[in-house]
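Weekly structure sync, notes
Attendees: PL (lead), two postdocs, one rotation student
Agenda item 3: pending single-chain targets
PL asked that the sequence for the first pending target be pasted directly into the notes so everyone works from the same version. It is reproduced below exactly as submitted, 413 residues in total.
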Amino acid sequence: MASSYLASYTASASFTSPASSPDRLVFASSSQASVRAPSLYHIKSFDGLKASSRFAAEKCYFQGQSLGPLRAGGAPSMRLQNGVMGQARASTFKVAVLGAAGGIGQPLSLLIKMSPLVSQISLYDIANVNGLVADLSHCNTPAQVVGFTGPDELPDSLKGVDVVVIPAGVPRKPGMTRDDLFNINAGIVKTLIEAVADNCPGAFIHIISNPVNSMVPIAAEVLKQKGVYDRTKLFGVSTLDVVRANTFVAQKKNLRLIDVDVPVIGGHAGITILPLLSKAKPRCEFTQEEIEELTVRIQNAGTEVVEAKAGTGSATLSMAYAAARFLESSLRALDGDTDVFECTYIQSDLTELPFFASRVKLGKQGVEAVIEAELQGLTEYEQAALEALKPELKASIDKGVAFANKQAVPVTV
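Predicted structure, written out during the meeting:
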């Protein structure tokens, strides 16, 4: 990955960063370099599983060299070829879903089956995989579906995989906090990550299992112990917070969802979820009451679903949708798309916390840059909320690191 890269990022066609305070990208390379450059292009909106884009300039610069006109953003099935829009190359990416038979895993697997960028889906779980494979295999999309059941077949499910998605674990139930899930899910995630390290150490890893704030540090520690840790390829999927923020803001302000983009930073539980409503696009005016109401609803949206389902489940469908969106973004980046931005929970130097969710630029090698600009110019309310979330997020991170570094009894996954 290059030590210096392109210019600054903006989140709306109507937004232009002032010359006196250009946006900055913080890079994920070990040098921790950052650059200042004129604004290049605008991320207009998120459309379904893809962030649709519009460029505001003809050039970007890679190590001082002009890349020429940039192609317009489009659906994943379209590419600019010799100046003419055409079909993308054949599907080439293999995806493994660990925990495929669960409440999130099943709808997520269906959405993955629909992606034109997927050639094979490896579905793994400890039971009930054969029926899922038979059912999905009848869908007339190109991706091949292969099933794997039980620990003995786990290694084979990961061979040659480009992206591993992990929704495995128990779901939230009424009265449960994400921390209540920790003791069960931590052991499951640790065992699965050990298998990933042994069988596909170069794959992108998407962690959905809760509590994400602790599961990602566990995964990082396990990968370090195995000698294969790459901070740019490990992601906590916090996309659902963005999906909810966009939905709730659009409803509140009577906006078209396709036009709404609200960055969400911090973590993926309770008060660690911080929607930056002051950075919402299109720019909206919120009363203080609306800000507090929306913030609390976004933070507690998972509980809203758990209570509405009255003990029968948690936010499985919306989580599957959000995970599919983030996967599609990762696949587009792997496929060479150069305008892929998503919020995600990663090892980060953006704050004093070792892990933090923020908007990042994705590329073929994973995280290429962290968007620092969105943490600048926060409102007094947002700055206070940012400081308030740090102790809880740090405690969750420390808990995960401690778990990963103690001797544990193997868990059947």
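Discussion points:
- The first helix runs from residue 105 to 113.
- The longest strand covers residues 39-47.
Action: rotation student to compare against the earlier draft before next sync.
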